[in-house]
Design goal:
about 300 residues, alpha+beta, Structural Genomics Hypothetical 15.5 Kd Protein In mrcA-pckA Intergenic Region, Chain A, Pseudouridine synthase, nine-stranded mixed β-sheet, 6 helices
Length: about 300
């Protein structure tokens, strides 16, 4: 292994009990990097044990062995920062919590090569480039394009890893507000229905048998009932793609104006579906007690709710 200009090289001498995995040990030695990032470096040949390149993450270590890891600088993503105003709910040295507007895509994808939240975040925090080792700098979770509300962005590798662990272990509590057509079978309830790719339309998701998808769990409770609609608070316990929209449609009470999983002709004139991520409860890096962030309903959704209350 030969270091190049700009590479960071770290050397460790293993002094623990024999039998510990290489990726586990290096993750403990380099807490600013996620385990997946360390595993990627091992797989790509950036780690030597006793001067020999090792590419297996599960290689067990012996007492006294010397481990050297070469960490290349982040590869520029090629993304161009854009000066797009952001609604900042909270910010510290580790992260920023943003209230994303409806219509904004979170990260670049075919057809969305500019104007995304990632482009806006790079314009606001240029040092985000490379955080997370992918073309989604700082992003640890996402919201659909037409879903508004809270999303958190990591500002450094340590915070990125911390947030990933929080989401992976389901310690983050996300609460959404949704107006649906009709009403659910019970005022409050829990949906446990696996979600996977729709077999007919591969870009869409659907409730499928467990062996064809992944476990998905959502809880909901009724906040207000109207003649033809119900205002719900929804708590997704897992984070599958389009989970809330799919689960509510599965209950035969799809999100209002969701023309993908609900009624093709919206029952209420609305330019996007009525779904808003309004509460985020998370333990911040270096904290022990969870912090709760909230974002009120945006004017377009609040207006719909106000009209229903006057009807």
């Amino acid at each position: 292994m030969r270091a190049r200009v700009g590479d960071r090289v770290e050397t460790f001498r293993y002094q623990n009990e024999a039998g510990v995995r290489l990726d586990v040990y290096l993750t403990a030695c380099l807490p600013e990097f996620s385990r997946s990032r360390i595993q990627g470096l091992i797989k790509d040949g950036f780690v030597n044990v006793e001067a020999e390149t090792v590419t297996k993450n599960g290689r067990t270590l012996e007492l006294g062995e010397q481990i050297q890891i070469r960490i290349p600088p982040p590869i520029p993503s090629g993304l161009v920062a854009e000066k797009i105003p952001l609604d900042i709910v909270f910010e510290n040295s580790d992260l920023v919590v943003v209230n994303k507007p409806a219509g904004m895509v979170v990260h670049p994808s075919p057809g969305h090569q500019q104007g995304t939240l990632v482009h806006a975040a790079l314009g606001y925090i240029p040092e985000l480039e490379g955080i997370g080792g992918e073309e989604r700098p700082g992003i640890v979770h996402r919201l659909d394009k037409d879903t508004s509300g809270l999303i958190v962005i990591a500002k450094n590798e340590r915070a990125h890893r911390w947030l990933q662990e929080q989401f992976k272990s389901r310690k983050v509590e996300k609460i959404y507000l949704a107006l649906v057509d009709g009403r659910p079978p019970t005022p409050a309830g829990r949906v446990e229905a696996p979600i996977g790719r729709n077999t007919t339309h591969r870009k869409l998701m659907a409730v499928v048998p467990l062996d064809k998808g992944r476990q998905a769990v959502s809880e909901y409770r009724t906040l207000e009932s109207f003649a033809d609609h119900t205002f719900l608070e929804v708590h997704p316990l897992t984070g599958r793609t389009h989970q809330i929209r799919v689960h509510l449609a599965f209950l035969n009470c799809p999100v209002v104006a969701d023309t993908v999983y609900g009624k093709r002709k919206p029952t209420i004139a609305l330019e996007r579906h009525f779904l808003h991520a309004y509460k985020l409860k998370i333990v911040l890096p270096m904290d022990e007690i969870a912090t709760v962030f909230e974002a009120p309903l945006p004017p377009d959704l609040q207006g719909v709710l106000d009209n229903l209350r006057l009807a």
